[in-house]
């Protein structure tokens, strides 16, 4: 990224310039890595914006508009009169989640769309057997699953970095609890290959998790994969 082409202040720049910094793309249109900590980088803000916007306001200013746009699309089934209220509710909850866990989620857009999708699904569900739910009747006492949700998102990100075979061994051996010998036989490798690859995979992702949260998240990821497969088979 050519820093000389960036606007002096993210707060004062026009929206297209600001979005290109916060959500940069390569010349071919593909996404590239976003600079981290933009809301807390004083060099990116002029003095008035830095002084009169607290850190959360700067954070929300950078990511809120893109998140609202995405959330509005996810809530198209909510009746028109209640939709903007629903968008506000979901966007606010997601921004709060991302802010509270900013030490674990360095690049917010990695998690914000997935989080928004799941929060919208939880708070404003729509299934073929249900009428669209009104924002006013959302059950506010539903247990907040955000900690588990963030574990899932972070684990998905970490698993994507592993070689495909290592990821498959982790799914089969640790996630589904299949014996290493059986997994090796099915994939045409030795038992030791499965156990060693699994160990390396665990070592790679474990720093992000406690043992309990890792295995919980891994099992949940696999559960979701199975649900998706069943859904495809039934359609």
Q: Could you name the key traits of this structure?
A:
235 residues, mainly alpha, 61% helix
Overview of this protein structure:
It is a single chain. The chain is mainly alpha-helical and 235 residues long. The chain has ten helices and no strands. It has helices at residues 15-22, 47-52, 55-74, 80-100, 109-123, 146-160, 164-175, 180-187, 191-205, 211-234. The longest helix is centred in the last third of the chain and has 24 residues, at 211-234.
Q: What is the radius of gyration computed over CA atoms, rounded to a whole number of angstroms?
A: 21 Å
Number of helices: 10
Could you report the average pLDDT, rounded to the nearest whole number?
A: 77
Helix content: 55-70%
Distance between the termini: 44 Å
Structure described in brief:
With about 240 residues, the chain is an all-alpha fold. The chain contains 10 helices and no strands.
Explain the layout of strands and helices.
Layout: H1 15-22, H2 47-52, H3 55-74, H4 80-100, H5 109-123, H6 146-160, H7 164-175, H8 180-187, H9 191-205, H10 211-234
Helix pairs in contact: 3-4, 3-5, 4-5, 5-6, 6-10, 7-9, 8-9
